[in-house]
Amino acid sequence: MIRVRAPSNIALIKYMGKFDFSSNLPANPSLSMTLEGLCTEIEIEVDERSLHDRLESHPGISSSGVDRFLKHIERVRQGVQKIFPFYDLKQSSHRGGLVIRSSNTFPDSAGIASSASSFAALTLAVAAVCADDLEKF
Predict the structure, then answer these.
(1) In this predicted structure, what is the pLDDT of residue 72?
(2) What are the strands, taking DSSP E only, across the chain?
(3) Which residues neighbour 93 within 8 Å (Cβ) at sequence distance 6 or greater?
């Protein structure tokens, strides 16, 4: 089982609009503050009886949010060597689907950026599943 925490942040000055949509560059800068005590926690385990990944718990997440989580897992699996080039990670060789449990240590709809912390934690957790030796990671 893999457990990962990622801190959330709150925008103090938020950028609006895009300068370049193809590169996802903002039209103006933003300023945010990391909230180390307010985290997203992700727990992942391999279910060898299933071939499909599933999100078991995250109160308040929509069905489109679940779809974004599952698509992100696949992106990380496919690109883990490029995302973390120094760790000699391979595309996941485990047999079975991933069971993902996600929660925040802060209330939903509090104005805190939970999607950034959620995807950061999810990226690290999926990469850890791909690691042959977690001590190196």
Answers:
(1) 92
(2) 2-13, 18-20, 25-26, 31-47, 54-57, 97-104
(3) 130
